[in-house]
Amino acid sequence: MSLVEILIFFFVIWWPIFFILLPVGFEPITKYDEETRYIKSAPNKPNILKKFFLATAFSFCLTTIVWILDYIKLFSLKEVLL
C-alpha cells in the first residue's frame, strides 16, 4: 500500500468510527432554563475531544493491522476491490 492509500483508508475508517462513538455516554441536559434555552436533546457533557482521540486511536490500530497484512501478503484490499 502506498502512503496515499494508507491515508485514504485511515480517513474512510475514521469517519464512521467517530460517528459511532458520538452517542456513547450520552446524557441529556436535565436542567432547562428559559434563559439558557438549550435544546432538551443536547448532551450535558459531549466529550468530543475524548471521542476524537478514541476514533483516531482505533482507526490507527485498524489501519496498521491492514497495512501489516498487506505488507506480508496475507490480505490485500486491491485484490478484494478489483
Number of domains: 1
Distance from N terminus to C terminus (CA atoms, Å) equals 14 Å
SS strand fraction:
under 5%
Shape: rod-shaped
Number of distinct helices: 3
Using DSSP, what is the number of strands? 0
Unreliable parts: none
**Whole-number radius of gyration?**
19 Å
Main beta sheet, described?
none
**What class, by secondary structure content?**
mainly alpha
Helix content: 55-70%
Mean pLDDT: 86
List the secondary-structure elements in sequence, H or E.
HHH
Architecture overview:
- The chain has 82 residues and is an all-alpha fold.
- Helix 1 packs antiparallel against helix 2.
- It has helices at 3-21, 48-71, 77-81.
- It has one domain (3-81).
- It has 3 helices and no strands.
- The protein is rod-shaped, with a radius of gyration of 19 Å.
- The two termini are 14 Å apart.
